[in-house]
Amino acid sequence: MNIGHTARVSGVSAKMIRHYEGIGLIPRASRTDAGYRTYSANDVHTLRFIRQARNLGFSIRQIEELLGLWRNQRRPSSKVKALALAHVAELDARIRELEAMKHTLQALAAHCHGDERPECPILDGLAALSPVAAPRAARKDIARLRVQSPKRTACH
To answer: Where in the chain is the domain with CATH 1.10.1660.10?
Structure first.
């Protein structure tokens, strides 16, 4: 089947199919005499596997490893489980970071009047966060320092 049909049935865009082919995640497609890519049912199955893994947040590197394990019928399931549990730990860390960011934004928004006044604690807080420290700055004690800062910046 051609790349358009493969994209529709796999749920992976034609652009991503070409990308996955280019980085070696899927094998190079065979070509018609006219040079068009053609894909097999097995290719579609692999693309669906990749799509599901991406939907679960696995990185390309992790997907390469999962594909290798999936293709190896003699693999120990312990390796697959270890990879999945390591990913769960990464997701937990990201969730904690997102919760901290949410808390910071809620604290900043709670101190913003949201009216016609030019003072804006949200902008003050954003201006006070350095790009290098931004991921760690999402902790409540830092948010409290930013919100309680006496200097207020007018909204632009």
So the answer is: 3-75
- Closest-CA residue to 49 (of 12, 90, 87): 12
Helical packing angle, 121-128 and 140-147, nearest 10°:
120
- List, for residues 12-62, the tens digit of each pLDDT value: 999 999 999 999 999 999 999 999 999 999 999 999 999 999 999 999 999
Whether the CB-CB separation of 155 and 118 falls below 8 Å is answered with: yes
C-alpha pair distances (Å), 1 with each of 7, 19, 27, 131, 143: 10, 18, 15, 47, 54
CB atoms within 10 A of CB 63: 20
What is the CATH number that goes with domain 3-75? Answer: 1.10.1660.10
User: Are the C-beta atoms of 25 and 64 separated by less than 8 Å?
Assistant: yes
pTM of the model: 0.73
pLDDT at 142 over 90: no
